[in-house]
Design goal:
The structure is a homodimer of 99-residue chains. The first copy, chain A, has three helices and four strands, in the order βαββααβ. Chain A has 99 residues and is α+β, with helices and mostly antiparallel strands. Chain A has one domain (2-92): Alpha-Beta Plaits. In chain A, strands 2-3-1-4 form a four-stranded antiparallel beta sheet. In chain A, α1 runs antiparallel to α3 (69-78).
Chain lengths: 99, 99
């Protein structure tokens, strides 16, 4: 599996907006071919920090996500809400073993 | 959902052992009551760095994991393989919405 862990730091005044935008992105992304997980979480000790956990069957499926309308809309929507640049860290998903 | 993201830095000579120990822990953990995810991944650019993504229905289920035989065995097995102390960061899982 091809996993991207995206760390997001959001301006405090846009936390609620960001959650709404991520819900929409999540609901569309989990319907993509080759998507295994598109989980969104908020850090317990700092509500302005989020993690997007994006797991795809392979690199091509992960790349295809970047071309979807819902991703492009999300990216544009949240652009001005970032407190600092997003960081995406690539991983090889080991377990569960990809079918 | 109660999510813990655990960052692990393993001594290079124990990378393969660590993967074997994590597979066993993963296979048992996903059978726990209240467990949603117990994913294990390896950083693409640094094979000595791992992430354990542990998602539980609630805090009690997450705490119960720490009392299981498989967790205690894993903790003892990997103790000497750490290159630096593990870091677990707590999150509130937003999406998918917990049933």
């Amino acid at each position: 599996m091809h996993v991207t862990i995206v760390h997001v730091h959001v301006k405090t005044e846009h936390i609620d907006d960001f959650i709404v935008a991520c819900k929409e992105n999540h609901l569309s992304s989990i319907q993509e071919k080759g998507n295994f997980r598109f989980d969104v979480m908020q850090q317990d000790q700092d509500s302005s920090r989020f993690v997007l956990y994006e797991s795809y069957q392979n690199e091509n499926a992960a790349k295809a996500h970047k071309d979807t309308n819902h991703y492009l809309k999300w990216r544009e929507t949240v652009a001005d809400w970032m407190a600092s640049p997003r960081q995406g860290i690539l991983h090889r998903g080991l377990f569960p073993i990809s079918e």
